[in-house]
Amino acid sequence: MVDVCRPTASAEGVSNHMVRNVMKKKILLIDDDQIFHYLHSKVIALAGIEADIITAGHGLEGMEIITKMIENGEELPTEVFIDLNMPNMNGFEFIRAVNDLDFPGKSQMKMIVVTSSVNSADRVIADELGIKYFLTKPLLVRDVAEVLAVNANRE
Q1: CA distances from 12 to 3, 6, 17, 19 (A)
Q2: pLDDT per residue over 82-91, tens digit each?
Q3: pTM for this structure?
Q4: Angle value at C-alpha 46, between 74 and 106, nearest 5 degrees
């Protein structure tokens, strides 16, 4: 979402009106904890982001969702919030699997790690995998607004 200030003429002269350029996002939340699905959805809404939110309980389910979207020619998520520690396929395995795929629109899908991990090695691995955003749980409205605003400015 980008706010643009445009001057407009009126009988009293020129005034500024804030015009909101709202782009609805499609966000995939991958976390094995249903409570974080709920909390992250609320934080995204509190950040003023209009989004369709899809949830997955682990990386393998997230891969199935993305693969199905690709096969059906559906719009891909604009952002993917990924927990690291999950069963079946953890966050790093998910990121590697997506990185190994070749599909249209892949470069437009932003990966955002969201974890309770304080292990500095996780940040190093995320950097090696090309992850630019590494957020700590619980998500803060300010962090989500900043990351999603940065992504909106790139589009």
Answers
A1: 24, 16, 14, 20
A2: 999 999 999 9
A3: 0.81
A4: 25
15 three-class SS: strand
Non-local CB neighbours of 42 within 8 Å, separated by 6+ positions:
none
DSSP sequence for 52-63: EEEEESSHHHHH
Q: 3-state class of 32 per DSSP?
A: coil
How far apart (Å, rounded) are the C-alpha atoms in residues 97 and 129?
Answer: 11
Provide the pLDDT confidence category of residue 151 given band limits of 50, 70 and 90: low
Identify the H or E element spanning 113.
strand 110-115
Contacts of 61 (CB under 8 A, 6+ apart): 30, 88
Instruction: Give whole-number Cα distances, 64 to 22, 91, 100, 155, in Å.
Output: 29, 14, 15, 26
Tell me if 37 sits within 8 A of 29, measured CB to CB. yes
